[in-house]
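4.2 Preliminary Data

To establish feasibility before requesting continued support, the project team ran the inverse folding procedure on a target of 1056 residues. The structure was first converted into the token representation described in Section 3, and no sequence information of any kind was made available to the design step. The complete token record follows.
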């Protein structure tokens, strides 16, 4: 980067023309790399309090995308801010290296489609390939993260595959085991037959697209009742299912004891179903079927029936009607088919009567030999054959003669594997669990200690998920992951379980200290079973590895190898001796990720922190929304529905992208559509105005300004006081991690700086007024420090140009009180700006050009005296001859208030009707904060509308927030028209000066020829024109080599 040279001869002069922000950014990046600025930002805070930031690690085996970009910007902004506030903020990059995402990528590379192929290849060779794969894109990640100006330590990173990290993970499991919070059990879990492994419940709730629309067969089947002593003997229990493939495993049906059931006669058969569902089956049963009998669900419990298929006819306690309070009559028949191996509610219900689930489906989702008629068929592929046998009474359906009553298709959202995108099944599997239900209530309590942004996530998406949390399935029968450190006896006659939590413990029992905890090396550690007196049985490790989310939840302690190292740093040491006291660094101060991680990383962090330490894992969390393509759909490489990140970097720059993402609703939990137009709008909103203000200062200041705040000029006092407000409000927003709020405050200030202060002060800068120069210098120096985390590279260039200092990111955050506060002046001048903006809109609507003077503007506000000192400024800004102030708002118009029930209703519920009545009765009162008091109800902005009803609608405009009215008199006299004509010529002459290559300060001579129709106007306003264009000589006559500038006027100008 070109070294700034802010010397006595002036500021570094920015290049002419539009700024090349991408080029400037590349210079900044090069400068940071050569200067080691990031390292200095940490070293210079040595000994300062630490701010602990968790870098949620990305899966390392893929390239970065917009989601990583968005999160990365937040991960950069907060640490930059906290560093400037005086904290030491280490930022270690983390790599999530284990789990199925890595395995599936390697399988794709090697053409492997089945676990059997992995076993044949050898676990060692496969895991070596996984290790190579997960580190394949590290250089691309580093380049991407560096280009987005994210400061992070790649050289001191951590990886979940590191031996030290994995040792901390097995320590965590051993702690859970010792506390009685880990167990092995058989549960029905979401199961991916393609990957041959179960999923955790939270993995189905992370992203909306996990549930995809799917069309499945839905069938209604009757099972014949066998109850010789009952009137229902020979009748059929009618069930409805969308999973016909589970019918061979049917072992019970369930009814709701409180529901009314009927027996209807149809085609010589008696069918039993809920009365509430009869109309749904009018096509099969008739519009008014004959009801033979009525029963409550309670009366049906205990009845026996013949299963639809005879494969498991000897299953003990099976084929009976069970109580199911969960059964509803919203769909189906009110009688629920139960296959306990393939349904969570099914298993819970059948467990109550001792039914042992039958499991005829193998790990690949295919029927095994226990169902010979469908053996080898995948369950989804077997559906047609099962339905055909039921319909025709053929094959195994011929034995017990079930009745197929209806066959239809059913469209419904169905869970798919988030890793391979195949439809899941539910399957009873043996798994290791964390007993989350044991400490669920404590997780809810500890959540109250966390500051969430957006705030509603605390008790909403995250809090509700915690309240209903289930035990967490943490084992995966896969290969590439941290091993579950459980060894069991291979002889059931001599049972024993050993759990290990450290390398020391493993070395103690096995005589070898592992240097690699991955499979197959860890599996090779065996020893004789100490509880077997025969010495024949052996302790062998179970084959499972941890769910990768267990790694993720372990990162706070795993990254620092706790408790084996850094124990005092992590937990802290409490001592009366201050020299021995050590501040703890857990919980972490800040984390950020997309909102789906309330069921992923945020959740698993919270689970393990609660179970292991009885503390939350983090103090502050930003949960942002999802980045969408320009068509509102999920980003897709094939659809090319989003701008390429590198193209944006090259065209607009990273700061522009950062601003677009950070200023958007996405940080308040909403989703964001990425468009090129939106990114460029960020350049226009803040980047260009800030740069233009700096360029303006560099152009007109003969020497660098001095940092001071004592100017008596009212515009100087205003912008300094306005900056004092920005400093306090932006600091408060950043303290809360309200980054989008901070962006909006900076945008509003930049608007005031460039479109008001600089524009209204131009003549002072042309005159090289020291107060103006020093004030703008001071304002820009403070503003760039405030904006540095949000626009790190543009502010670096400006700040270094202003100060000649090393880096704005090594500077301290502006202190409270460093700028003079003047709330009254800020309020008054902001209202002046509102008045001018509203009146300008009236001019535009009436198509009255800005340079045409108008007679009068009337301003009606509650406190007109506050505007009295600024009437001249208003008149000059709006080009009006007089400004009249009044507090008689009613004489010019009124505001009609209405409640927006559609917007307010979801928040207020029934209270919205009370608000409507109060407003209609005239009880609506606008408050200073933008809210509306409507009786006892307070409406937020957007929940009500305020419509101006004016005495002169065409000439009247409302001030923001109902603060008053402005009325513009648009009468144009000949005198005013003449002055407007002269001002139009002034503008054209200024443009001619510029296009002729004259410097702004150059004096000129002018010869002007004016058509007869306007000669009098030109002579009347000769001095006005000459003064504005710095003309020391001004003559009327036919110019030599003149040019036409407008309205038939010809001129020639020469440098004086």
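Position-by-position output of the design step:
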């Amino acid at each position: 980067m070109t070294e700034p040279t802010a010397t006595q001869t002036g500021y570094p002069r920015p290049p002419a023309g539009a700024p090349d922000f991408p080029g400037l950014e590349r210079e900044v990046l090069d400068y940071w790399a050569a200067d080691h600025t990031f390292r200095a930002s940490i070293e210079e805070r040595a000994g300062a309090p630490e701010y602990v930031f968790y870098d949620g690690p990305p899966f390392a085996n893929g390239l970065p995308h917009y989601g990583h970009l968005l999160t990365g910007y937040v991960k950069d902004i907060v640490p930059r801010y906290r560093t400037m506030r005086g904290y030491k903020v280490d930022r270690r990059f983390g790599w999530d290296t284990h789990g199925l995402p890595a395995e599936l990528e390697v399988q794709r590379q090697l053409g492997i489609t089945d676990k059997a192929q992995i076993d044949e290849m050898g676990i060692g060779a496969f895991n070596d390939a996984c290790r190579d794969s997960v580190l394949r894109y590290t250089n691309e990640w580093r380049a991407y993260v560096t280009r987005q100006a994210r400061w992070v330590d790649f050289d001191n990173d951590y990886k979940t595959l590191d031996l030290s990290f994995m040792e901390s993970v097995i320590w965590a499991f051993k702690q859970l085991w010792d506390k009685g919070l880990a167990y092995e059990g058989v549960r029905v879990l979401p199961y991916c037959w393609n990957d041959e492994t179960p999923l955790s419940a939270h993995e189905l709730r992370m992203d909306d697209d996990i549930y995809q629309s799917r069309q499945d067969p839905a069938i209604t089947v009757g099972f014949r009742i066998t109850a010789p002593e009952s009137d229902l003997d020979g009748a059929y229990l009618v069930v409805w299912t969308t999973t016909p493939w589970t019918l061979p495993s049917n072992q019970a049906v369930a009814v709701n004891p409180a529901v009314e059931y009927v027996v209807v006669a149809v085609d010589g058969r008696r069918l039993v179903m809920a009365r509430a569902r009869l109309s749904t089956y009018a096509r099969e049963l008739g519009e008014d079927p004959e009801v033979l009998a009525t029963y409550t669900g309670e009366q049906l419990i205990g009845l026996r029936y013949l299963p639809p298929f005879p494969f498991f006819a000897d299953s003990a306690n099976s084929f009976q009607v069970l109580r199911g309070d969960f059964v509803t009559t919203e769909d189906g028949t009110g009688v629920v088919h139960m296959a306990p191996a393939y349904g969570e509610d099914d298993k819970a219900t059948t467990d109550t009567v001792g039914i042992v689930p039958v499991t005829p489906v193998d790990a690949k989702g295919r029927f095994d030999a226990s169902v010979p008629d469908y053996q080898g068929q995948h369950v989804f592929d077997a559906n047609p054959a099962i339905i055909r046998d039921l319909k025709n009474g053929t094959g195994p359906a011929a034995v017990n003669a079930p009745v197929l009553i209806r066959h239809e298709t059913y469209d419904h959202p169905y869970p798919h594997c988030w890793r391979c995108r195949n439809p899941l099944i539910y399957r009873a599997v043996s798994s290791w669990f964390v007993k989350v239900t044991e400490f669920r209530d404590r997780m809810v309590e500890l959540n109250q200690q966390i500051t969430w942004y957006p705030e509603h996530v605390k008790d909403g998406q995250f809090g509700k998920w915690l309240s209903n949390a289930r035990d967490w399935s943490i084992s995966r029968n896969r290969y590439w992951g941290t091993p579950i450190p459980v060894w069991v006896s291979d002889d059931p006659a001599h049972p024993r379980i050993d759990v290990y939590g450290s390398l020391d413990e493993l070395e103690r029992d096995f005589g070898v200290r592992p240097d690699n905890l991955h499979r197959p090396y860890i599996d090779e550690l065996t020893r004789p079973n100490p509880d077997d007196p025969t010495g024949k049985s052996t302790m062998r490790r179970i084959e499972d590895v941890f769910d990768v989310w267990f790694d993720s939840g372990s990162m706070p302690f795993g990254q620092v190898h706790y408790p084996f190292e850094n124990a005092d740093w992590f937990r802290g040491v409490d001592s009366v001796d201050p020299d021995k006291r050590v501040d703890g660094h857990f919980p972490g101060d800040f984390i950020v990720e997309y909102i789906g991680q309330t069921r992923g990383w945020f959740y698993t962090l919270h689970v393990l922190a609660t179970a292991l330490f009885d503390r939350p894992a983090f103090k502050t969390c930003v949960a942002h929304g999802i980045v969408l393509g320009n068509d509102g759909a999920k980003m897709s490489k094939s659809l090319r529905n989003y701008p390429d990140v590198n193209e944006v970097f090259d065209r607009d720059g990273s700061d522009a992208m950062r601003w677009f993402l950070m200023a958007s609703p996405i940080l308040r939990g909403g989703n964001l559509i990425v468009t090129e137009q939106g990114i460029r709008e960020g350049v226009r909103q803040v980047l260009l105005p800030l740069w233009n203000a700096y360029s303006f200062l560099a152009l007109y200041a003969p020497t660098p300004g001095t940092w001071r705040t004592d100017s008596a000029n009212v515009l100087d006092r205003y912008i300094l006081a306005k900056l004092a407000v920005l400093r306090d409000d932006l600091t408060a927003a950043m303290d809360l991690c309200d980054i989008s709020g901070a962006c909006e405050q900076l945008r509003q200030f930049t608007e005031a700086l460039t479109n008001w202060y600089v524009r209204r002060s131009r003549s002072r800068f042309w005159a090289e007024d020291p107060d103006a120069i020093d004030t703008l210098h001071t304002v820009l120096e403070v503003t760039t420090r405030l904006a540095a985390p949000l626009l790190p590279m543009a502010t670096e260039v400006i700040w270094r140009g202003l100060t000649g200092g090393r880096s704005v990111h090594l500077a301290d955050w502006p202190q409270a009180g460093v700028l003079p506060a003047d709330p009254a002046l800020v309020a008054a001048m902001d209202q002046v700006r509102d008045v001018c903006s509203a009146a300008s809109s009236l001019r535009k609507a009436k198509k009255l050009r800005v340079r045409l003077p108008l007679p009068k503007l009337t301003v009606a506000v509650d406190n007109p005296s506050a505007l009295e000192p600024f009437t001249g400024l208003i008149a000059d800004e709006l080009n009006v001859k007089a400004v009249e102030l009044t507090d008689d708002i009613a004489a010019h118009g009124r505001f009609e208030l209405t409640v927006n029930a559609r917007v307010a209703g979801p928040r207020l519920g029934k209270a919205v009707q009370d608000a409507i009545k109060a407003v209609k009765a005239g009880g609506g009162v606008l408050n200073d904060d933008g809210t509306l008091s409507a009786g006892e109800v307070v409406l937020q902005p957007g929940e009500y509308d305020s419509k101006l009803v004016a005495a002169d609608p065409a000439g009247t405009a409302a001030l923001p927030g109902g603060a008053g009215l402005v009325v513009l008199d648009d009468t144009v006299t000949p005198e005013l028209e003449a002055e407007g004509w002269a001002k139009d010529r002034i503008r054209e002459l200024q443009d001619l000066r510029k296009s002729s290559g004259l410097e702004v300060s150059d004096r000129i001579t002018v010869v002007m020829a004016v058509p007869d129709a306007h000669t009098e106007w030109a002579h009347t306003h000769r001095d006005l024109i000459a003064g504005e264009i710095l003309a020391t000589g001004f003559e009327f006559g036919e110019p030599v080599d003149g040019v036409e500038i407008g309205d038939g006027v010809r001129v020639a100008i020469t440098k004086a």
